[in-house]
Automatic annotation (TrEMBL):
Top-level taxonomic group: Bacteria
Organism taxonomic ancestry: Bacteria, Pseudomonadati, Pseudomonadota, Gammaproteobacteria, Oceanospirillales
InterPro entries: DUF4396
Parts forming coiled coils: none
Pfam families documented for this protein: DUF4396 (PF14342)
Protein name: DUF4396 domain-containing protein
Keywords: Membrane, Transmembrane, Transmembrane helix
Residue stretches spanning the membrane: 6-25, 32-53, 130-152, 173-194, 206-227
Residue ranges constituting the DUF4396 domain according to the UniProt record: 92-232
Length: 235
């Protein structure tokens, strides 16, 4: 039964990510990294990810899309919708989108390192689980800082060194909070019913979906604090 449920949610996650990716191709994000972040969000937020994207992140139609639809009622609706997203977005939504930005880097790192950990059997202090967690943290941190660094460099006059420092400041607390939430859930899953961290099991990736959702929830307060202190900007 768990295997069937796992396949269902993984399929829903992939479908949500593809739907967002197709829409993003028609409506590119003002911040380029979000063209990657929003589809990744769909992977661990099946269905809900589409709602979040449509409600908080969907950009105005591209010039070609506008031309193909003319200037009728539908176009006016899209323009108004886009203004709502990027103009007077409530703070909770800005923090939510910032958390997806953090989640995108964390998820990318986890997806890359999990198969490596399983293939190599990497262990620390005799524990494969600890080895997996450490590799995942390193991968998530590298991708997370990269996801922060690229927009800082692209949207400011900061030097590479200063942009890297700002990216580390903006990402560290939220990333630690995200990964901590993930690890707590994965430990529960391992000792409860999964048994081991096998990245070639569909149940593992379903548990990772749940873990990423929990990580998103635990990173939300961290992002709120960073934004309140001016270390990070609401998106």
């Amino acid at each position: 039964m768990l295997t069937l449920v796992s396949w269902l949610f993984i399929a829903l996650g992939v479908a949500t990510a593809l739907a967002i990716a197709m829409d993003v191709a028609k409506r590119p994000q003002p911040m380029a990294i979000m063209n990657v972040t929003w589809p990744i969000t769909g992977l661990y937020m099946p269905v809900l990810g589409w709602w979040a994207y449509a409600r908080m992140g969907r950009a105005a139609p591209s010039a070609n899309d506008q031309a193909s639809h003319g200037h009728g009622e539908g176009h006016e609706h899209d323009q108004g919708h886009a203004h709502h997203h990027h103009g007077d977005k409530p703070k909770w939504q800005g923090v939510f989108v910032s958390a997806t930005h953090c989640g995108g880097g964390c998820t990318a790192g986890d997806v890359v390192t999990a198969p490596l950990a399983t293939l190599t059997g990497f262990a620390l202090l005799g524990s494969a689980t600890l080895g997996h967690f450490v590799l995942a943290f390193i991968g998530a941190y590298l991708f997370g800082v990269l996801f922060q660094y690229l927009p800082i460099r692209g949207m400011s006059d900061s030097s590479p060194r200063q942009a890297l420092i700002d990216a580390i400041k903006a990402d560290t607390l939220s990333l630690v909070a995200f990964q901590a939430g993930m690890y707590v859930w994965m430990l529960i899953a391992i000792h409860g019913w999964m048994g081991e961290m096998n990245a070639f099991s569909v149940t593992f990736w379903f548990m990772m979906q749940v873990a990423m959702l929990i990580g998103f929830a635990t990173s939300y307060p961290a992002n709120w604090i960073l934004i309140d202190r001016g270390i990070k900007h609401a998106m």
